[in-house]
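In this supplementary section we document a worked example of the pipeline. Step one takes a protein sequence of length 239 as its only input; no multiple sequence alignment statistics are reported here. Step two produces a three-dimensional model, which step three serialises into structure tokens for compact storage. The input and output of this example are shown verbatim.
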Amino acid sequence: MIVFCGGIGGALPDIDTISLWSRFDSTIGPFFHLPHQGVDIYYGNFWYSHHNFAHSLVGGLIITSCLFVLLSLLFIICTKTNGQKNIFRRLSVYWTALFLGYVIHLIGDLPTPSLTWGGIKLFWPLPAAIGGNGLIWWWNNYDIFIITAGCCTLNAGIIFFYHTLKKPFIKYLPLFICSGSLIIILHQIEQRNVSFAYEGYTERWWAYEMKSLEIQQEILGQRLYAIMENFDHKLSIYF
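The serialised model returned by step three reads:
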């Protein structure tokens, strides 16, 4: 459940991509009396544009806290534990997982290109954009995905078998695994040796796209790359 909450938290920042939904301009936009079309909102610099409020620490706190309160109330209603005073404290570990997953997503967006936003508004409502240096491409970072998935899998196994193993050092293993995974990811980013940095729009989009895939073939080898490419094509989301 903790790992699941972390995954949900990791997906939440991209809730601001809803402005690209095909029916946004006929439903959500008019409902909130938004003066711009969805595509203009997405690439714009409004507080509700992509890489703005939802890609900030403040946004993360507000969004995950609202979701946590909603899920906690549903839990209380469904399990009939209305009188239990410590229910929110017991469930706070899940909010922590939600928020940490959220923050990891923000960190992952920092080395992507700046496009029209200049990075992400990590410290919104401050206007400064952070990151956007194009150390990695928007997606096709299969090596980083594999490292992250391995980290989550190992930690999930540790949590599952924690009470069975009963070794004092076990409780420190997740921190060690996460730290090691982060170091490896930073190393992989440095090994790109290609700058994907650009501002605004670029005619080199497909050249960057092909280069990112070429890099993955070099890193993973043809067999593992083919597996990841097939897995990628089966998903309806970019990663």
